[in-house]
Amino acid sequence: MSDRSATGLDRSFEHVPDTDQSFENALAKARAGDRLTVADGVELMTTGTDCDGIDPVRKEQVLEAADRRRAEMVGDDVTFVANLNNNVTTACNTGCLFCNFKNTAHQFESEYEGDHTGFTKTPAESRAVVEDALDTGIYEVTSVSGLHPAFVLNEDHREILESYENPYAEVDYKPPEAYDKDPGTYVEQMRAMSVGGVHLHSMTPEEAYHARRGTDWSYEEVYRELKDAGLDSAPGTAAEILVPEVREVICPGKISTAEWVEGMEGAIAAGLDVTATIMYGHVENAAHRVMHLKVIRDLQDRTDGITEFVPLSFVYQNTPLYERGLVTEGAADAEDELMIAVSRLFLDNIDNIQSSWVKFGNAKSLKLLNCGANDFMGTILSEEITKRAGGGYGEYRSFDDYVEMISAIGRPAVERSTDYRQRRRIAPDDAPHGPMLGPRADGTPMLAGCESDGGEPAPADD
Ligand SMILES: C[S@@+](CC[C@H](N)C(=O)[O-])C[C@H]1O[C@@H](n2cnc3c(N)ncnc32)[C@H](O)[C@@H]1O
Ligand SMILES: Nc1c(NC[C@H](O)[C@H](O)[C@H](O)CO)[nH]c(=O)[nH]c1=O
Ligand SMILES: N[C@@H](Cc1ccc(O)cc1)C(=O)O
Ligand code: SF4
Fold first, then answer.
1. Is the dihedral of CA 25, 31, 36, 42 positive or negative?
2. pLDDT tens digits for 314-344?
3. DSSP state of 105
4. Does domain 76-308+315-325+371-430 have CATH number 3.20.20?
5. Please, are residues 187 and 154 in contact by the beta-carbon 8 Å criterion?
6. How far is the CA of 391 from the centre of ligand 1 (A)?
7. Ligand 1: residues whose CB is within 6 Å?
8. C-alpha–C-alpha distance, residues 361 and 354, integer Å
9. ipTM of this predicted complex?
10. Which neighbouring-strand residues pair with 142?
11. Where is the composition biased (Basic and acidic residues) (predicted)?
12. For 89, which DSSP code?
C-alpha cells in the first residue's frame, strides 16, 4: 500500500482522507447493511484513518463484509458476457495524461509524413469486424473511441461545425478530406455496428459530448438519435475520478464531473441502460475514491439506469502520468481489493460489481470475486486501451477459460446479456463451452483451439 493513496500526504489536495468517524463504527454499519456516508466509506477504504497504511486484519473484515453483501444482493452466480471490443479510432486531441490509447489527430492527416501506431476504421470496416464476430456467437459489441476531429453526429452537425469561422480551434473539427481515413459520422458507425441483432454498447459521455460539440443540442436528443441508429446501451467510462481537483491533474481537457453526470442522465432519459466506472490508482487519494462512489450512488438514486459498476485499476507503464513523474506505480493489491469491497458496500443501489480481468489478470480478478464482485466482464476478443498503456493480461478469454476459473472458486458460471436480464447457467462438465445468447450463438466455442494463457495477445477473429 503506498502512502500516496492511503493518505494523500504527498499532494496538496483540498480533499484528504480525514474523518470524525471510527473504523469500528463504519464496519458495524457496513455489516448491518446501513447506508454508508462518505466518512464511513473513507474509514473502510483506508482501514481506518487512525493508522498509516493498510491494516491486514481490518482489511479482511471489510472484504468479508463485502463478500457477504454480494451473496445477499445477487447470490453466488458469476456472470460474464460474450462480447467483442471494436474501437473505431485512436485519433484524439483531448490529451488525458493517463491515456496511451490515443494518438494526436494531426498524425492522421494526409499531409503528415511521419509514422504512427494509430488506426481509424470506416463504417464499412467496423461492420465487417462485427459481422465476423457475430458468427463466433457474440451477444454484444463494445465500442469506445478517440475524439477524431472529423467525427460528427450526422450531416446537420457537420454543417453547423463548418459554419464556425475557425472550426479546428473553436470546436476541434476538421473535414474528413484532411485525413487519410474517414470515420464517417457517429450515426453511420452505429448503423454499421448494429448488425444482425447484436447488442451495441457504445458512446461514452465524452464521445456524446463530441457528438454535440458546437451545438445547443441536449445529451438526451443526441442519445435518442444514436439509439434510433441502433445504439442499445452506453458505457460509463470517461468517469475517471469524478472530483474536479483530480480531473484538473489527470485530464484537464476532458468533460467536467457535472457534464459527465449530465451525459449519463441524458442517455438514461433517452431510454438506454448505462454502466458506470472509476479509474483509480494514480494521483487520487481514498477520499476522492469514496466521493466518486457518492456521485455514482446519487445518480443511481435519481435514475436507476446503471446496470453495473466497473472499477478500472490504472495501468501506468506507458502513460504520460508515469513518464512525467506524476505517479511511480499503480494501485497495490490491497487497494484493488478494498476498491471492489467498498464499491459493493457503498453502492447499495447497484446490483453488479465487475471484476475486470483485463486490468487485474486471472489470479487477482478471481480473488476479487470473493471481495464483493459478482461479474467477470466479457470475452472482448480484442483489446487496445490497456495493452497500449502497458498492461499484459491478454486480449480475450474463452468460455472454457471462464468455466474453469469460476468453477475453481466453487461458484456457478453464468452467461449473461449486457443488461443482465437474460442469464444462462453453464454446466461445467459439459465441455467444450460456447455462447448461447448471441443472435447467431449455438453453443459452439468462440475460440476453438485457443489456449488463453492470460498473457498472449490473440487475433480478433480466431
Ligand atoms: C480510452 S477512453 C475511450 C473513450 C473516450 N475517448 C473516453 O474517454 O470516454 C476509455 C476509458 O479507458 C480508460 N483508460 C484509459 N487509459 C487507461 C489506463 N492507462 N489505465 C486504465 N484505464 C484507462 C479510461 O477510464 C477511459 O475513460
Ligand atoms: N468490455 C469491457 C472492457 N473492455 C476493455 C476496454 O475496451 C478497455 O480496454 C479498458 O477496460 C478501458 O480501460 N473492459 C472492462 O474492464 N470491462 C468491460 O466490460
Ligand atoms: N463494462 C463496462 C466497462 C468498460 C470499461 C472500459 C471500456 O472501454 C468499455 C467498457 C462498460 O461497459 O462501461
Ligand atoms: S481517455 Fe478518451 S478522451 Fe482521453 S485521451 Fe484517451 S481516448 Fe482521448
1. positive
2. 999 999 999 999 999 999 999 999 999 999 9
3. G
4. yes
5. yes
6. 13
7. 98-99, 101, 144-147, 204, 206-207, 237-238, 240, 277, 279, 312, 314-315, 319, 385, 389
8. 13
9. 0.94
10. 85, 201
11. 417-432
12. B
